[in-house]
């Protein structure tokens, strides 16, 4: 992040010229914004809709084919390589009335990092070129740039030592920036909590173009970045994280159980067992069709795991033949990509684009009864049905106070549910009506059996069906209207997030359909 004194002087002059101009109430001319950018950012890093590479650059970071068509696209794409480029983009955007959408990996479930639900003139700031991972094994810390993928981060950590890891998500193509901003959990959540729980510093470009760290941004904003929809507060360029200890050998297993083999009873039992197991043992469930697959990571050997499974969860019938021992870094591709995948495969930033998808989420605080699970499997047997992923909580994630970070789904949560459905991408953006209807109707069916007042949801499984921002006459998102979706994601932390937003971005420059609205204290 270091810059020469000459660069700092030039940037200071640029800040002086640009910061005096307030955001225009109408969209500035294309030429004005582009000219402003070109003064500080090399032309090869800028793409207009007429650029030959525009479509390939935009589409490279789209992870859901339904957003390839029938959506509002950016007028410009900016691919910065350093902090000064990002600062210039913010200042030019404010000067010319152009908002920025920030893309790290492109996995936003509603595509808001690169598109808009509403007609507007905006630019995408794609962090693909700001993706370094700097691991300090001696101090068990790392600086991870927001444009890095989880796979790139895991790979660098694995190369640095066989007994260090980091607790984050399963999908290796997910971008660090968005994942950390929403909390971020994976197979280590019961042992070490969220990715955001393990963030100890960050570098942020705010709406004034300032480059801030943990101390200069202030405690409220630093709190907000770690699980509170970080794109609402500015552009996080890099995160300092503390790494966690893992043994030289871990054990994974995947045990499928069909309905005819007793899946309904085993899943019903799993609800009581999984959140109370030793923290070293994580067992999630993928429920699809008439099958439940129990996928596990254990921080230890098979010999140590088997007695735990026999005493705590004999209903699963797991035995030695189900064990696969390996290193932690080997478990990353094995669990998500399959048994034939290699560690190098997690560096691949591309994914198959043959299916579109729709998802939403729930939290369960009281175990669901067997009769209801029988009905759930009936829903999963219907035509055009999707799937459920059940991630158990308890352990470390549940031991953190609800207000300690913006992520509030802590003590008392048994597990998270992700609902997802898929359809052929050949149908374009207008396809999938039957699959989306299944998600909508199944979500309605589940209402009596999940959390209430509010019905909780996970911010990283973004769902615009939960509600959207309403922008008032002053060009600022309504705090009260945002409660509809904001309290589902953040419960009682929503108000503090809105107050932090007012501290760092009172004019609501960093805004999308589900960004945190600003709330000025006393209003």
Number of strands: 18
Strand content: 15-25%
CATH architecture of the largest domain: 3-Layer(aba) Sandwich
Briefly, what CATH class of the largest domain? Alpha Beta
Per the principal axes of the C-alpha atoms, what is the gross shape?
A: globular
Average pLDDT level: 93
CATH topology of the largest domain: Vanillyl-alcohol Oxidase, Chain A, domain 3
**Tally of domains:** 3
Largest sheet: 7 strands, antiparallel
Could you tell me the radius of gyration in angstroms? 23 Å
- Helical segment tally? 17
Strand order of the largest sheet: 15-12-14-13-17-18-16
Class by SSE composition = alpha+beta
The separation of the N and C termini measures 38 Å
- Helicity level, as a percent range? 25-40%
Low-pLDDT sequence parts: 1-29
């Amino acid at each position: 992040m270091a810059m020469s004194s000459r660069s700092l002087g030039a940037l200071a002059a640029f800040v002086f010229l640009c910061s005096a101009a307030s955001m225009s109430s109408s969209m500035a001319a294309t030429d004005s914004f582009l000219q402003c950018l070109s003064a500080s950012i090399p032309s090869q890093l800028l793409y207009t809709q007429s650029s030959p590479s525009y479509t390939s650059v935009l589409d490279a970071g789209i992870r859901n084919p339904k957003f390839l068509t029938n959506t509002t696209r950016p007028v410009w794409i900016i691919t910065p390589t350093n902090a000064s480029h990002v600062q210039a983009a913010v200042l030019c955007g404010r000067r010319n009335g152009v908002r920025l959408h920030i893309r790290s990996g492109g996995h936003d479930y509603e595509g808001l990092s690169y598109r808009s639900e509403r007609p507007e003139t905006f630019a995408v700031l794609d962090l693909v070129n700001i993706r370094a991972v700097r691991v300090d094994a001696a101090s068990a810390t790392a600086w991870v740039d927001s444009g890095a993928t989880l796979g790139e981060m895991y790979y660098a950590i694995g190369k640095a030592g066989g007994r260090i890891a980091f607790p984050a998500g399963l999908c290796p193509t997910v971008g660090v920036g968005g994942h950390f901003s929403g909390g971020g959990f994976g197979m280590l959540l019961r042992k070490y909590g969220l990715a955001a729980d393990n963030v100890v510093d960050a570098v942020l470009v705010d709406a004034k173009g300032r480059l801030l760290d943990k101390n200069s941004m202030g405690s409220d904003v630093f709190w907000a970045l770690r699980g509170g929809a970080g794109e609402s507060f500015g552009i996080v360029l890099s995160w300092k994280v503390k790494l966690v200890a893992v043994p030289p050998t871990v054990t994974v297993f995947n045990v499928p159980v069909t309905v005819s083999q007793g899946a309904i009873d085993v899943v019903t039992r799993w609800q009581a067992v999984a959140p109370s197991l030793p923290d070293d043992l994580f067992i999630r469930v993928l429920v699809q069709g008439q099958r439940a697959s129990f996928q596990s990571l254990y921080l230890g050997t098979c010999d140590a795991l088997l007695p735990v499974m026999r005493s705590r969860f004999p209903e699963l019938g797991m035995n030695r033949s189900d064990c696969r021992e390996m290193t932690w870094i080997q478990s990353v591709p094995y669990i998500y990509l399959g048994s034939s995948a290699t560690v190098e495969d997690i560096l691949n930033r591309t994914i198959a684009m043959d299916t579109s998808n729709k998802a939403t989420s729930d939290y369960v605080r009281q175990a669901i009864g067997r009769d209801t699970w029988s009905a759930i499997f009936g829903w999963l047997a219907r035509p055009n049905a999707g799937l459920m992923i059940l991630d158990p909580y308890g352990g470390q994630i549940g031991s953190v106070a609800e207000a300690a970070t913006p992520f509030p789904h802590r003590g008392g949560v048994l597990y998270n549910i992700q609902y997802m459905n898929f359809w052929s991408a050949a149908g374009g953006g207008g396809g999938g009506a039957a699959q989306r209807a299944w998600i909508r109707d199944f979500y309605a069916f589940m209402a009596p059996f999940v959390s209430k007042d509010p019905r909780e949801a996970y911010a990283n499984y973004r769902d615009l069906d939960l509600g959207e921002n309403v922008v008032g006459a002053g060009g600022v998102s309504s705090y009260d209207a945002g409660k509809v979706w904001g309290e589902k994601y953040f419960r009682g932390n929503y108000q503090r997030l809105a107050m932090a937003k007012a501290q760092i971005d009172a004019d609501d420059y960093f805004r999308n359909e589900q960004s945190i609205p600003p709330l000025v204290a006393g209003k």
